[in-house]
TrEMBL record:
<dbReference type="GO" id="GO:0006654">
    <property type="term" value="P:phosphatidic acid biosynthetic process"/>
</dbReference>
<protein>
    <submittedName>
        <fullName>Acyl-phosphate glycerol 3-phosphate acyltransferase</fullName>
    </submittedName>
</protein>
<feature type="transmembrane region" description="Helical">
    <location>
        <begin position="12"/>
        <end position="31"/>
    </location>
</feature>
<keyword id="KW-0812">Transmembrane</keyword>
<keyword id="KW-0012">Acyltransferase</keyword>
<feature type="domain" description="Phospholipid/glycerol acyltransferase">
    <location>
        <begin position="73"/>
        <end position="187"/>
    </location>
</feature>
<keyword id="KW-0472">Membrane</keyword>
<comment type="pathway">
    <text>Lipid metabolism.</text>
</comment>
<keyword id="KW-0808">Transferase</keyword>
<dbReference type="Pfam" id="PF01553">
    <property type="entry name" value="Acyltransferase"/>
</dbReference>
<dbReference type="InterPro" id="IPR002123">
    <property type="entry name" value="Plipid/glycerol_acylTrfase"/>
</dbReference>
<keyword id="KW-1133">Transmembrane helix</keyword>
<dbReference type="GO" id="GO:0003841">
    <property type="term" value="F:1-acylglycerol-3-phosphate O-acyltransferase activity"/>
</dbReference>
Length: 274
């Protein structure tokens, strides 16, 4: 039954993407850029509905009040699943991503991201690429936007040892805006490199922003410490609340370490149900 539900969800997920891109394309490209966000945000909400109804997976967001009121910040979530890419879009006024230049060449998708002024990066250009990215990111943030960046760069299994890249520290140093860490474990329910989807409930915890002014190295150390502490607490809490979940080996290993350290779950404030 679980395999059937996973297959049904995966089928409807991609049909939802294709149909909305086709049916809503005229709406998207006729609307002003910022108002056009209604299309991808609607897609994200319908994906949440599909996952809740078909798979039985729901989530709660804690810490919405930690997002800076002026709307100018870097959002730095853990990255475990494709779910992370779209899940928080409905909570952000006008976000943008830094993405590979090659993605801009994909028909229709490339046009969508170009309209939202996403920032392409040419990885072959190395140092020149980072300078160009910083210039573009500064210009976008000057208009009141939010940059979403995954500090570890790529998807990591829940519980895996952290591998934060220095790029997020350079952006923090040069853009001089707050960085908002986000801890969550969607990878337990939507594992990377797997077609299975698992039912249950998990929490997305938006942490207090790290304000500008630290050195890049001090910032990175603090980002890792605060994000990983919240991730450990949420891992314990999520596994406790979902005892039937099949855990990846990295999560099991991390739980064993935390058990020996006698780490207890953090306080559980009331979140915003989805």
């Amino acid at each position: 039954m679980l395999a059937l539900r996973s297959a049904l969800f995966n089928t409807l997920f991609y049909l939802n993407l294709i149909l909305q891109m086709i049916v809503l394309t005229p709406v998207y490209f006729l609307l002003p850029r910022k108002k056009a966000w209604i299309v991808p945000k609607t897609w994200a909400r319908t994906n949440h509905w599909l996952m809740r109804v078909i798979v039985g997976t729901n989530f709660t967001v804690e810490g919405i009040e930690n997002l800076p009121a002026d709307g100018v910040y870097i959002l730095a979530p853990k990255h475990q699943s494709f779910w992370d890419v779209y899940a928080l879009l409905p909570h952000l006024p006008d976000p943008f991503f830094i993405l590979k230049r090659e993605l801009m060449r994909i028909p229709l998708f490339g046009w969508y991201v170009a309209k939202q002024r996403m920032v392409p990066v040419d990885r072959s250009a190395r140092g020149r690429a980072m300078a160009a990215v910083l210039e573009r990111a500064k210009a976008e943030m000057a208009t009141g936007r939010q940059l979403i960046i995954y500090p570890e760069g790529t998807r990591r299994p829940p519980g895996a040892p952290p591998e934060y890249k220095f790029g997020v520290a350079r952006l923090y140093r040069d853009l001089k805006v707050p960085v908002v860490p986000v801890a969550m474990h969607p990878g337990l329910f939507w594992p990377r490199r797997s077609l299975m989807r698992y039912p249950g409930h998990f929490t997305v915890r938006i942490l207090p922003p790290i304000q500008p002014g630290l050195s890049a190295s001090d910032f990175l150390a603090r980002l890792i410490e605060e994000t990983e502490a919240a991730s450990d607490a949420l891992l314990i809490r999520t596994v406790h609340d979902n005892p039937a979940l099949p855990l990846p080996p990295e999560a099991r290993a991390r739980l064993d370490i935390l058990a020996h350290q006698e780490v207890l779950p953090a306080a559980q404030p009331v979140g915003e149900p989805q």
